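Aim 2 progress update. The chain analyzed this quarter is reproduced below.
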Amino acid sequence: MVEDKFILVSMDDERLKNLADVLGNKTCKKIVEHLAEKSEASEKDISDFLKLPINTVEYNLKKLIDSGFVQKRKNFFWSKKGKKIPMYELTNKSIIISPRNNSKEKVKSLLPSLILLGAGTFAVWVYQRLSVNGIQDYVQSAPEAATNFALAAAPKAAGGSVEIVQSSPLWLWFLIGGLLVLGIFSMLNWRKL
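Predicted C-alpha coordinates:
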Protein backbone atom coordinates (compact mmCIF):
# COMPACT_ATOMS: atom_id res chain seq x y z
CA MET A 1 0.00 0.00 0.00
CA VAL A 2 1.44 3.37 -1.05
CA GLU A 3 1.37 5.98 1.68
CA ASP A 4 0.78 9.62 0.80
CA LYS A 5 3.61 12.00 1.67
CA PHE A 6 1.30 14.95 2.13
CA ILE A 7 -1.97 16.00 3.75
CA LEU A 8 -4.10 18.00 1.31
CA VAL A 9 -6.68 20.23 2.99
CA SER A 10 -8.88 22.81 1.29
CA MET A 11 -10.23 25.91 2.98
CA ASP A 12 -13.69 24.28 3.15
CA ASP A 13 -12.43 21.05 4.73
CA GLU A 14 -13.48 20.26 8.31
CA ARG A 15 -9.98 18.91 9.05
CA LEU A 16 -8.62 22.46 8.76
CA LYS A 17 -10.16 23.32 12.14
CA ASN A 18 -8.39 20.32 13.73
CA LEU A 19 -5.10 21.39 12.16
CA ALA A 20 -5.54 24.95 13.41
CA ASP A 21 -6.33 23.69 16.93
CA VAL A 22 -3.23 21.53 16.95
CA LEU A 23 -0.95 24.24 15.56
CA GLY A 24 -2.25 26.75 18.12
CA ASN A 25 -1.86 24.38 21.07
CA LYS A 26 1.40 24.83 23.04
CA THR A 27 1.33 21.29 24.43
CA CYS A 28 0.90 19.80 20.95
CA LYS A 29 3.81 21.89 19.70
CA LYS A 30 6.01 20.62 22.56
CA ILE A 31 5.06 17.01 21.78
CA VAL A 32 5.85 17.51 18.07
CA GLU A 33 9.21 19.10 18.95
CA HIS A 34 10.03 16.21 21.29
CA LEU A 35 9.10 13.62 18.66
CA ALA A 36 11.19 15.53 16.11
CA GLU A 37 14.25 15.16 18.37
CA LYS A 38 13.53 11.51 19.21
CA SER A 39 12.53 9.11 16.47
CA GLU A 40 9.86 7.53 18.70
CA ALA A 41 8.49 7.80 22.21
CA SER A 42 5.75 6.39 24.40
CA GLU A 43 3.17 8.43 26.30
CA LYS A 44 5.17 7.89 29.50
CA ASP A 45 8.43 9.03 27.87
CA ILE A 46 6.75 12.22 26.59
CA SER A 47 5.08 12.81 29.96
CA ASP A 48 8.35 12.43 31.85
CA PHE A 49 10.36 14.60 29.45
CA LEU A 50 7.81 17.45 29.25
CA LYS A 51 6.81 17.13 32.92
CA LEU A 52 3.12 16.91 32.03
CA PRO A 53 0.39 14.65 33.41
CA ILE A 54 -0.05 11.44 31.40
CA ASN A 55 -3.71 12.15 30.67
CA THR A 56 -2.77 15.55 29.14
CA VAL A 57 -0.22 13.84 26.90
CA GLU A 58 -2.75 11.15 25.96
CA TYR A 59 -5.39 13.77 25.05
CA ASN A 60 -2.97 15.84 22.95
CA LEU A 61 -1.54 12.76 21.23
CA LYS A 62 -5.07 11.79 20.19
CA LYS A 63 -5.55 15.27 18.67
CA LEU A 64 -2.21 14.97 16.88
CA ILE A 65 -3.12 11.55 15.50
CA ASP A 66 -6.53 12.79 14.31
CA SER A 67 -4.92 15.74 12.54
CA GLY A 68 -2.31 13.55 10.84
CA PHE A 69 0.86 14.90 12.51
CA VAL A 70 1.60 11.82 14.62
CA GLN A 71 1.04 8.11 14.12
CA LYS A 72 1.35 4.98 16.22
CA ARG A 73 4.31 2.84 15.29
CA LYS A 74 3.90 -0.81 14.53
CA ASN A 75 6.44 -1.78 17.14
CA PHE A 76 5.62 -1.60 20.84
CA PHE A 77 6.90 -2.93 24.12
CA TRP A 78 5.36 -4.57 27.16
CA SER A 79 5.26 -3.00 30.60
CA LYS A 80 6.21 -4.85 33.78
CA LYS A 81 2.51 -5.42 34.41
CA GLY A 82 2.03 -7.00 30.97
CA LYS A 83 0.35 -4.01 29.33
CA LYS A 84 1.03 -3.22 25.68
CA ILE A 85 2.73 0.20 25.41
CA PRO A 86 2.45 1.79 21.96
CA MET A 87 5.18 4.00 20.50
CA TYR A 88 4.49 7.23 18.63
CA GLU A 89 6.34 9.02 15.83
CA LEU A 90 5.88 11.97 13.48
CA THR A 91 4.20 11.06 10.19
CA ASN A 92 6.73 12.99 8.09
CA LYS A 93 4.01 14.41 5.87
CA SER A 94 3.78 17.85 4.35
CA ILE A 95 0.59 19.79 4.88
CA ILE A 96 -0.81 21.51 1.81
CA ILE A 97 -3.65 23.95 2.36
CA SER A 98 -5.31 24.73 -0.94
CA PRO A 99 -7.63 27.63 -1.58
CA ARG A 100 -11.29 27.07 -2.28
CA ASN A 101 -12.26 25.61 -5.62
CA ASN A 102 -11.35 28.07 -8.33
CA SER A 103 -12.99 28.55 -11.72
CA LYS A 104 -10.88 25.84 -13.36
CA GLU A 105 -12.10 23.30 -10.82
CA LYS A 106 -15.70 24.36 -11.38
CA VAL A 107 -15.39 24.06 -15.15
CA LYS A 108 -13.74 20.64 -14.73
CA SER A 109 -16.73 19.53 -12.66
CA LEU A 110 -18.96 20.25 -15.69
CA LEU A 111 -16.77 18.21 -18.06
CA PRO A 112 -18.60 14.88 -17.59
CA SER A 113 -21.93 16.58 -18.37
CA LEU A 114 -20.47 18.12 -21.52
CA ILE A 115 -19.13 14.74 -22.64
CA LEU A 116 -22.56 13.14 -22.10
CA LEU A 117 -24.20 16.00 -23.99
CA GLY A 118 -21.79 15.48 -26.90
CA ALA A 119 -22.48 11.74 -26.96
CA GLY A 120 -26.24 12.34 -26.85
CA THR A 121 -26.02 14.89 -29.64
CA PHE A 122 -24.03 12.45 -31.76
CA ALA A 123 -26.63 9.72 -31.11
CA VAL A 124 -29.48 12.04 -32.17
CA TRP A 125 -27.52 13.05 -35.28
CA VAL A 126 -26.98 9.38 -36.21
CA TYR A 127 -30.65 8.56 -35.59
CA GLN A 128 -31.81 11.48 -37.71
CA ARG A 129 -29.34 10.63 -40.46
CA LEU A 130 -30.53 7.01 -40.57
CA SER A 131 -34.19 7.97 -40.59
CA VAL A 132 -33.70 10.54 -43.41
CA ASN A 133 -31.72 8.00 -45.43
CA GLY A 134 -34.47 5.44 -44.84
CA ILE A 135 -37.13 7.83 -46.18
CA GLN A 136 -34.99 8.70 -49.21
CA ASP A 137 -34.40 5.01 -49.95
CA TYR A 138 -38.16 4.39 -49.74
CA VAL A 139 -38.90 7.30 -52.08
CA GLN A 140 -36.32 6.07 -54.58
CA SER A 141 -37.52 2.46 -54.45
CA ALA A 142 -41.24 3.24 -54.79
CA PRO A 143 -41.63 6.66 -56.41
CA GLU A 144 -45.27 6.12 -57.43
CA ALA A 145 -46.37 5.10 -53.93
CA ALA A 146 -44.49 8.02 -52.36
CA THR A 147 -45.98 10.47 -54.86
CA ASN A 148 -49.50 9.18 -54.29
CA PHE A 149 -48.99 9.32 -50.50
CA ALA A 150 -47.59 12.87 -50.68
CA LEU A 151 -50.39 14.03 -52.99
CA ALA A 152 -53.04 12.54 -50.75
CA ALA A 153 -51.55 14.11 -47.64
CA ALA A 154 -50.72 17.52 -49.14
CA PRO A 155 -53.31 20.09 -50.14
CA LYS A 156 -53.90 20.24 -53.87
CA ALA A 157 -53.25 23.98 -53.95
CA ALA A 158 -49.62 23.33 -54.84
CA GLY A 159 -50.56 22.52 -58.41
CA GLY A 160 -49.80 18.81 -58.27
CA SER A 161 -46.03 19.00 -57.71
CA VAL A 162 -44.53 17.06 -54.83
CA GLU A 163 -41.50 18.22 -52.81
CA ILE A 164 -39.84 16.32 -50.01
CA VAL A 165 -38.99 18.87 -47.35
CA GLN A 166 -36.14 17.97 -45.03
CA SER A 167 -36.91 18.67 -41.40
CA SER A 168 -34.77 20.97 -39.27
CA PRO A 169 -31.69 19.37 -37.72
CA LEU A 170 -32.96 17.75 -34.53
CA TRP A 171 -29.43 17.24 -33.21
CA LEU A 172 -28.83 20.98 -33.30
CA TRP A 173 -31.92 21.64 -31.17
CA PHE A 174 -30.82 18.88 -28.77
CA LEU A 175 -27.36 20.45 -28.44
CA ILE A 176 -28.71 23.97 -27.92
CA GLY A 177 -31.21 22.74 -25.32
CA GLY A 178 -28.54 20.77 -23.46
CA LEU A 179 -26.14 23.71 -23.41
CA LEU A 180 -28.92 25.97 -22.20
CA VAL A 181 -29.80 23.58 -19.35
CA LEU A 182 -26.13 23.23 -18.37
CA GLY A 183 -25.70 27.00 -18.45
CA ILE A 184 -28.71 27.61 -16.23
CA PHE A 185 -27.70 24.82 -13.83
CA SER A 186 -24.13 26.13 -13.50
CA MET A 187 -25.31 29.72 -12.96
CA LEU A 188 -27.72 28.66 -10.21
CA ASN A 189 -25.22 26.33 -8.51
CA TRP A 190 -21.91 28.11 -9.20
CA ARG A 191 -21.02 28.47 -5.54
CA LYS A 192 -21.83 24.83 -4.79
CA LEU A 193 -19.73 23.40 -7.63
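The chain has a mean pLDDT of 78. The radius of gyration is 35 Å. These observations will guide the mutagenesis experiments scheduled for the next reporting period.
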